[in-house]
UniProtKB/TrEMBL annotation:
This is Tetratricopeptide repeat protein 30. Required for polyglutamylation of axonemal tubulin. Plays a role in anterograde intraflagellar transport (IFT), the process by which cilia precursors are transported from the base of the cilium to the site of their incorporation at the tip. Required for polyglutamylation of axonemal tubulin in sensory cilia. Plays a role in anterograde intraflagellar transport (IFT), the process by which cilia precursors are transported from the base of the cilium to the site of their incorporation at the tip. It comes from Anopheles atroparvus. The keyword Transit peptide does not apply. PANTHER family: TETRATRICOPEPTIDE REPEAT PROTEIN 30. One of its GO terms (cellular component) is intraciliary transport particle B. Belongs to the TTC30/dfy-1/fleer family. GO terms for biological process: intraciliary transport. The keyword Coiled coil applies.
Length: 654
């Protein structure tokens, strides 16, 4: 017989198939078995085929095989158990429960049946039933570690993370190292914000996984820049716990604000193609996608359509938050309306109120301000009470109570900060910077030491136009803190600080800061991608001078920032500053309020001609993450040509 480029001689089918299974070549084994006509009608064939499909995580096909088996040999209860297990793994909890409810009365299978029934109840979020079934299990026969692990999972779902840890750690000690139990312990530490302990467990899982399963190719994607061959989803990957460990590491990095570190953790995963990814990995890739929000939104929307049993519980909330981040408030409102049944299940009252206020702000800002004010007052009252509790614990020198009180205070502060930012954002978006400053002053009682609050407060003071000195006082600590790695500072911060220095007659400080950025860019080169820090600083300074009607110097600074319009820095992000300033010049010339020397006008024409040549295929506008009109977007080259034509016409006008 010829199968998969291999000839199997008569009498060697059994040996060949069992060798494939031993070597975990389950795809080859299923191909061979499906090529044998008797497979679908014999107990041996269906049993082997069901086992292979189960190991390949094709649980629907495995369930079909075991369904045929229980009809073929109804007295063998093991097949009924395997059928129920396959249905459970496929997410068909109700069907699995029906199978376990009858026909499984063998004493030898009682422990496994109880464990499966408890897992089904847990998957259905019926934790009371899961607990009662767990109590019926016996501690003997080496089940102590398994029972402690299941007890820990129930305590985890009840948010009793400390008690859950007291089950997971003994389970590891009594049953030997189990990557899944170690992951559960790491997850508890993560929920308790004890990231160093969580990372210790993750490191051990990864170290053992690499040592025991080198065939999984951990880190191969990073070494080959994403070109590694997919390893699929072999049983070794599920048994190693590597996927869970790397995803938890990515979550820790993401929570700490290190998005690049989160991407690196996901890149270290065993290489798989996107259709082979598990839902948690797909979810985390959506949040850390370097290509922008479009792909992330599509992935989260896809996961949401799979249903609650498959998609991670955080999917619904993160999809809504990502829509709000990209100012797609109508889309967020539609998602909320279409999935009302998920609102109460996956959104906390706090998060629902916050999202509701952000969406309401698009039509009725006054109502949104009232909602956010109510939410801020509620959390503010809790923060004051918690601050008093922290002081009491410090006076009593109770370190454990102090740690718990500080953790509660920090958690409440994390909830308060987005509300405070949203209250300031409403007047900000209407260019009411005085109103935004008023909101920041109202939240200074709790947030004044928070880096993100200080950054946005600096932006508000800067936009006031008459508070440059105060804005610089907020920007300077941010720059000093990262002075040795100045390119890690957002370019907007550096640009605004330079402008603040110029506007307060501190030109030397501005020049020194720009020289520092220039030296850092020269050292970095183009090894790690395009760096636009100095370009943006020059663009902002040039725009400032143009706003003060000094177009000669302002446009020369802008042209210098973009290498005369012929460099790689020409893109939609930078072009928007160019055309605003050129349009301002054209407006002033048309009104005869601005007169430029002929040399300056000729330099501007040359700059626009270079932009026209090098920007022929570069889009001139930024598109939203889900915008796909199908139409060809305007290019920088086309817009530069139109601006040059207008300038020539005005130069000829007498």
């Amino acid at each position: 017989m010829f199968s998969q480029n291999m000839i199997i001689r008569d009498g060697e089918y059994t040996k060949t198939i069992y060798t494939m299974i031993k070597e975990e070549r389950f795809q080859d084994a299923t191909n061979t078995l499906n090529g044998i006509p008797e497979t679908s009608t014999t107990r041996a064939g269906l049993s082997l085929l069901g086992h292979c499909y189960y190991q390949m995580q094709d649980f629907i096909e495995a369930a079909n095989c075991y369904e045929h088996l229980i009809n073929l040999v109804p007295d063998v209860q093991e097949y009924r158990l395997y059928y129920a297990q396959s249905l459970f793994q496929a997410g068909l909890f109700e069907e699995a429960q029906k199978i376990t409810a009858s026909g499984l009365d063998s004493p030898e299978l009682k422990e496994k049946v109880l464990q499966l029934q408890s897992a089904i109840a847990y998957g259905n979020e019926d934790y009371t039933t899961a607990q009662s079934l767990l109590l019926q299990r016996q501690d003997g026969n080496g089940q102590e570690a398994s029972i402690k692990n299941d007890e820990g999972c129930l305590l985890y779902q009840a948010n009793m993370y400390e008690d859950a840890l007291q089950r997971f750690v003994p389970a590891l000690q009594s049953g030997g190292f189990n990557p899944h139990v170690a992951y559960n312990a790491a997850l508890c530490h993560y929920r308790r914000k004890e990231n160093s302990q969580a990372l210790n467990y993750i490191a051990e899982i990864v170290e053992r996984g690499i040592r025991n399963h080198p065939e999984l190719g951990v880190g191969a994607q990073a070494e080959t820049e994403g070109g590694a061959r997919s390893v699929g989803n072999p049983p070794a990957l599920a048994a190693s716990g590597l996927a869970q460990a790397f995803n938890l590491k990515a979550a820790i990095e993401y929570q700490e604000g290190n998005v690049e570190g989160a991407r690196e953790a996901l890149t270290d995963l065993p290489p798989r193609s996107e259709p082979e990814l598990d839902p948690v990995t797909l979810h985390n890739m959506a949040l850390t996608d370097p290509m922008g929000g479009g792909a992330g939104l599509r992935r989260l929307a896809f996961l949401l359509e799979l249903g609650p049993t498959t998609c991670p519980p955080e999917t619904f909330a993160n999809l809504l938050l990502l829509c709000c981040k990209h100012e797609m408030y109508d889309t967020a409102a539609d998602i909320l309306a279409e999935h009302t049944h998920l609102t109460y299940k996956y959104l906390s009252p706090y998060l629902y109120d916050l999202l509701d206020a952000l969406i309401t702000a698009q039509s009725t800002p006054e109502e949104a301000e009232q909602k956010l004010g109510t939410l801020a007052n509620s959390i503010g009252g809790r923060l004051r009470a918690m601050a008093a509790k922290v002081q009491e614990c410090r006076s009593a020198t109770d370190q454990n109570a102090l740690r718990m009180a500080l953790r509660e205070y920090e958690g409440a502060l994390e909830s308060y900060l987005p509300v405070a930012m949203a209250r300031a954002w409403i007047p900000w978006r209407m260019d009411d910077f005085q109103g935004a400053e008023r909101e920041f002053r109202a939240s200074a009682e709790f947030c004044s030491e928070t880096p993100s609050w200080r950054l946005h407060a600096a932006h508000v003071l800067f936009m006031r136009g008459d508070r440059y000195k105060e804005a610089a006082a907020f920007y300077e600590p941010i720059v000093r803190q990262n002075y040795d790695d100045i390119l890690s500072i957002p370019a907007s911060v550096l640009a605004n600080l330079c402008v603040a220095y110029i506007m307060t007659s501190q030109n030397e400080e501005a020049e020194e800061l720009m020289r520092k950025v220039e030296r850092a860019e020269e050292r970095k080169g183009n090894a790690n991608g395009q760096c636009l820090h100095l370009c943006i600083v020059n663009l902002v300074i040039g725009t400032l001078y143009c706003a003060k009607n000094n177009y000669e110097f302002g446009l020369s600074r802008i042209a210098h920032a973009l290498d005369g319009g012929s460099g790689a820095r020409l893109c939609a992000d930078t072009w928007i500053h160019v055309k605003r300033c050129v349009l301002g010049l054209l407006t002033g010339m048309a009104k005869q309020t601005i007169v430029l020397p002929s040399i300056a006008l000729q330099e501007t024409l040359n700059f626009l001609r270079a932009c026209e040549a090098y920007g022929l295929t570069i889009p001139s506008v930024l598109t939203g993450p889900l915008e796909d009109s199908g139409e060809q977007p305007p290019t920088i080259g086309l817009e530069a040509r139109k601006l040059r034509a207008l300038l020539l016409k005005l130069m000829e006008y007498k």
